[in-house]
Amino acid sequence: MKSGTRALGIAESYPGSARASTDDSSEHSFSTDATSTSDDSRDSAPKSILCGAVVRANGVVDGLEYGTCTVGGDDATDAIVSLYDSLGREDVRYVLVSGIAPAWFNLVDIGRLASELDRPVLSVSFEESEGLESALAEQFSGDALSRRLDIYRGAPPRRAVEVNGERLFVRAAGCDDEEATKVVRAFTPTGGRPEPLRVARMAARAARRFVGN
Predict the structure, then answer these.
(1) What is the pTM of this model?
(2) H or E stretch including 111?
């Protein structure tokens, strides 16, 4: 892969408590009654800070942008689209998203994201998981549960990828598995976290600490 190829990494940070074991790289869970996602509850719910980091394949950071999505809501996909549009970077070739269920089960529709951005989208997670369906059923009901299950069941399959002696888990939309593996490896010079996601994660955390969320 050419050294100037750019990928956009999307990661988030929000104040939470004990971590849930899910198909999600977020480091926090959130304790609340999230069975309803009405407009009123969405407006009053806490926000997770999203960061988008543009990184070249040679490791050079080439841009940052911020956004927010609702903790326990269902606006993560739209928030990522908005963040991408705000960047105005047509030179971004790939989009990497940390996990599939950021901000306490605010599921990202990977397929829709790839279609709307017209770019391959890779959801990358970092832990073994038995899946999210039981966790979703414990925390949501009615339409809130149905919406999440539809997105989750429609997501591309999760596949293990070995990188620098570590195992990542990748869902890919807009490209095949072979290309997805090449992208993840090309953007992971050391360790087991692709550089666009590592930078975005650090920047999101710093932003949250700065604003005091």
Answers:
(1) 0.89
(2) helix 110-117
